[in-house]
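Supplementary Methods S3. Input chains for the assembly prediction are listed below.
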Amino acid sequence: MIEIENVRKSFGALEVLKGIDLTVQNGEVLTVIGGSGSGKSTLLTCINGLEPINAGTIRVDGTEVHAKSTDINKLRQKIGIVFQQWNAFPHLTVKENVMLAPRKVLKQSRAEAEAMAVRQLEHVGLGDKLDVYPTRLSGGQQQRMAIARALAMSPRYMLFDEVTSALDPQLVGEVLDTLRMLASEGMTMICVTHEMKFAREVSDRVAFFHQGVMAEIAPPDELFGSPRDPNLQQFLAATH
Amino acid sequence: MFDTAMTLNDVMFLAQGAGMTILVTLIAVVCGTVLGIIFGVVRYQVGPVWAAPLTFFLDVFRSIPLLIQLVLTFAFIGTVMKIRISGFSVACLVLTLYTSAYCAEIVRGAIESVPPTLRRASRSLGMTWGQDMRHIVLPLATRVAFPSWIGLALSVMKDSALVYVVQVTELLKSTQILITRLQEPLFLLMICGAFYFLISFPIARIGGYLERRWSND
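Predicted structure tokens for the full assembly:
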């Protein structure tokens, strides 16, 4: 369970999160929508401790992410994150990209890590690209590799930060299919996305962020069908 | 002009000088690189403000001509501090610091060339700072730094000719001694140049080979 309580976060004078309260249950798929600068991506990087917060608490399975006593490297093993830019390690093959963290962080043997890497890469449809370097892959394939790399750590939670935003339109589908598959397997996910159709399909709940505030959160039918917040109504009108 | 009074013994004398050049260069490049990596990582890690004293110290070594550094260091340690020290030790010490100053800049630039988003990705996978440095930054930064580092090694090799001022008889000094005796400056300088070429050429070739092998795209 991810519990977010009254989280505030500023970059200099600019407050990007103005008191966020949110709880994500295990097995839940939450999508977060909103305009750029609404704070939705920042929230994800706060959840895995990449960004410090100014006030409030974030707890993952009861462990406070930003507490000094928390071993953040250990906590991050539970929380996979995939970014808009896929960030493939260019000096490693696709398989080695996926094997690196399990070997070094989880201290798995080469055989163990390799078996896991092959399984995860086949899972995302890259079983035939194991030994090529990522520069030879398309953006969509690199993004699926990044998903497999995060999954190889057997995380309990997956955070997706606009993972299709940097892709060519014809490559968006394959990555969304991968996310759909994960959702159907019961992975707990928070997806920041601009893909409204996708959000509508896979989410248990959808949250709308506006200027650092979570303006509305509801099951997708309700949020898209009868939006109450005026900013959300405007946002939906503009994106449709 | 190939009618020379030079004997095989003289060639051996030059070879000995070349050996000294190689030895001083090797010590300076190895120790200077180790120090340079440490200085470069520290400079990158602590930020420009905290690194200011270190940056100043390195700038001193980069901006004062090597010849002056050698003479002053030799005089300072020997005369002011009254410590008996060989010219060879001073040569190694000064060349090492000189190399480290340039190497630190190369290292810092190379680390900065690794996209921060890659490092964010590796840290997100639970890797520690050290693991990120070892498995992501080091291999990627090495590729960026390597051509400049080869250039540095070659230039240190040639600059090492200046250590004659602290009484180290390296290749160029040996040549000058022979010139004084044989009075065949052009011929001897050609031989000397050939020796320098023989030393640098393999380094440049190995560098080129490694660069090609590391580029996997």
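The helical segments of chain B are 8-50, 52-63, 66-80, 87-112, 116-124, 129-159, 171-182, 185-214. The mean pLDDT of chain B is 89.
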